[in-house]
């Protein structure tokens, strides 16, 4: 009698543990957007040319002088004006943001191939890492703007700076969405309950 009862309970528990299509869709979209954010931020950090002003190009790694004659730009690692320490902090923040986002993305993906409390913990920790990446990325952007405030113009920002700004915004949105997806899943009915309707 006990064995029959256990066999009857086990399939019901498995049915109720299966996520809804809507939940899977939301999680997949979050992971896809995080992948896009990581790519945008990686491109922005590796290229590093974020600002153009008066024939000068300011970036994370180099400061270049661009000539109208079409010659190759003259680049140097020393920005001058006492901005090198602040720029080092900016580089560190945006680089750590990419690292944090990659580890967060890995945890989000792994959580989808596991079940139970371990899956929830991985998803929750991965979402925190994505939010940390958003904070680090936003901090790096803010420091860069403060350092080169005198040279900032509305049309001076390059495409790679826009990539970094977009990545920071997407990190924030996806981190929040990932944090709240667990609460949404608790409120939605399970697939087993839907089958009984």
List keywords for this structure.
4-stranded antiparallel beta sheet, disordered N terminus, disordered C terminus, 197 residues, alpha+beta, 70% helix, elongated
Q: What does this 3D model show about the protein?
A:
- Residues 1-17 and 191-197 have low confidence and may be disordered.
- The longest helix is centred in the C-terminal third of the chain and has 31 residues, at 117-147.
- A four-stranded antiparallel β-sheet has the order 1-2-3-4.
- With 197 residues, it is an alpha+beta fold.
- The two termini are 28 Å apart.
- 70% of the residues lie in helices and 8% in strands.
Give a topology summary.
Layout lengths: L1 H16 L3 H27 L1 E5 L2 E4 L3 E3 L8 E3 L7 H28 L5 H31 L11 H29 L3 H6 L1
Antiparallel strand pairs: 1-2, 2-3, 3-4
Mean pLDDT: 81
Query: What characterizes the major β-sheet?
Result: 4 strands, antiparallel
Shape: elongated
- Counted by DSSP, the helix tally is 6
Which structural category do the helix and sheet elements fall into? alpha+beta
Percent range of helical residues: 55-70%
Low-confidence stretches: 1-17, 191-197
Span between N and C termini? Answer: 28 Å
Please provide the count of β strands.
Answer: 4
Percentage of β-strand residues: 5-15%
């Amino acid at each position: 009698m006990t064995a029959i009862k256990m066999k009857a309970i086990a399939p019901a528990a498995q049915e109720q543990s299966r996520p809804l299509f809507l939940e899977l869709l939301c999680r997949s979209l979050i992971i896809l957007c995080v992948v896009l954010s990581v790519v945008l931020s990686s491109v922005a950090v590796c290229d590093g040319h974020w600002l153009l002003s008066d024939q000068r190009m300011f970036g994370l790694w180099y400061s270049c002088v661009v000539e109208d004659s079409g010659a190759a730009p003259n680049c140097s690692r020393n920005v001058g004006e006492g901005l090198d320490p602040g720029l080092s902090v900016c580089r560190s923040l945006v680089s750590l943001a990419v690292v944090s986002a990659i580890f967060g993305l890995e945890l989000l993906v792994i959580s989808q191939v596991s079940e139970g409390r371990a899956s929830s913990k991985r998803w929750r920790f991965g979402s925190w890492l994505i939010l940390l990446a958003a904070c680090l990325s936003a901090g790096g952007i803010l420091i860069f703007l403060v350092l080169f405030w005198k040279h900032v113009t509305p049309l001076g920002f390059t495409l790679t700076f826009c990539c970094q700004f977009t990545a920071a915004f997407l990190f924030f949105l996806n981190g929040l969405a990932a944090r709240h997806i667990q609460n949404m899943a608790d409120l939605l009915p399970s697939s087993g309950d839907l089958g009984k309707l």
